[in-house]
């Protein structure tokens, strides 16, 4: 039961962190707006809440001496995945801070980057917050006021990661993966489609060979005809030269 709960919580964190990264990409682009800045703030707050919940749950389980070896190995694997998610979240938060400073909305110092992104990011933010419709309540100066909070939260995330390493000693290189690299991209459906494709190709190969044989025969016949034509022309020219001399 504990493993399923941890996996669910980690999946939720990964989903919100992915949405946050998607929103960060829109910073400074033609899709940038006050609503985007508020979406970023709410999404990152949600990610931090889920991060704290994941840390608390996994820390308690890994400190439990009564769990068996198999469960501990699974919790250690989830811990490594959680640590990786936190590192990516921290990187995206720092990127958001840097871009936010370079591209203020009210007094722009640079032109917005033409990234090709268009439209609203509300759908992504709503998915991260698990709501149908986003409600915007931020002040008009959120693009500058939130930067101070973001700087503080980056420090908090970094401190939390340091505490995680101190409380739980899990060596990432010692954790064994449960599946091969890229295995999540392979499904039964894709394998089935691939098998069908192979069978179709194998069935069509004889037809292609027959067509190839016919093509080869036609080419050979044309070559023979051209050869005889050349010989005949050469013979006629030789006859004319002899008569003229």
Molecular structure report:
This protein has six helices and no strands. The chain has helices at residues 2-25, 34-63, 69-102, 122-129, 142-167, 188-244. α1 packs antiparallel against α2 (34-63) and α2 (34-63) runs antiparallel to α3 (69-102). It is elongated and about 110 Å long.
Percent in helix: over 70%
Q: Strand-and-helix sequence, N→C?
A: HHHHHH
By DSSP, the count of extended strands is 0
Average pLDDT level? 76
Radius of gyration: 33 Å
Number of distinct helices:
6
Q: SS-based structural class?
A: mainly alpha
Shape: elongated
**Between the first and last Cα atoms, what is the distance in angstroms?**
109 Å
Beta-strand share of residues: under 5%
Which ranges are low-confidence, i.e. pLDDT below 50, for 5 or more consecutive residues? 188-210
- Main sheet overview: none
Task: Please specify the SSE layout and strand pairing.
Elements: H1 2-25, H2 34-63, H3 69-102, H4 122-129, H5 142-167, H6 188-244
Helix pairs in contact: 1-2, 1-3, 1-4, 2-3, 2-4, 2-5, 3-5
List keywords for this structure.
single chain, 245 residues, mainly alpha, 6 helices, elongated
How do you describe this structure in short?
This protein is mostly helical and 245 residues long. The chain has six helices and no strands.
């Amino acid at each position: 039961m504990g493993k399923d709960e941890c996996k669910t919580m980690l999946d939720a964190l990964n989903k919100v962190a992915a949405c946050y990264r998607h929103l960060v990409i829109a910073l400074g682009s033609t899709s940038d707006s006050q609503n985007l800045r508020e979406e970023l703030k709410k999404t990152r707050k949600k990610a931090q809440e889920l991060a704290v919940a994941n840390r608390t749950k996994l820390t308690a389980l890994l400190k439990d001496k009564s769990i068996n070896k198999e469960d501990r190995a699974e919790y250690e694997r989830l811990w490594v995945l959680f640590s990786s998610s936190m590192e990516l979240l921290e990187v995206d938060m720092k990127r958001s801070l840097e871009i936010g400073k370079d591209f203020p909305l009210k007094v722009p110092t640079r032109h917005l980057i033409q990234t090709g992104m268009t439209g609203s990011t509300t759908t992504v933010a709503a998915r991260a917050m698990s709501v149908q419709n986003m409600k915007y309540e931020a002040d008009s100066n959120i693009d500058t006021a939130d930067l101070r909070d973001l700087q503080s939260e980056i420090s908090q995330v970094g401190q939390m990661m340091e505490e995680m390493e101190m409380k739980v000693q899990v060596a990432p290189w010692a954790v064994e993966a449960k599946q091969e690299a890229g295995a999540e991209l392979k499904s039964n459906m894709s394998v089935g489609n691939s098998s069908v494709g192979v069978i179709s190709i194998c069935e069509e190969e004889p037809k292609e060979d027959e067509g190839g044989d016919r093509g080869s025969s036609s080419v050979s016949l044309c070559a023979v005809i051209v050869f005889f034509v050349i010989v005949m022309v050469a013979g006629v020219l030789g006859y004319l030269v002899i008569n003229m001399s």
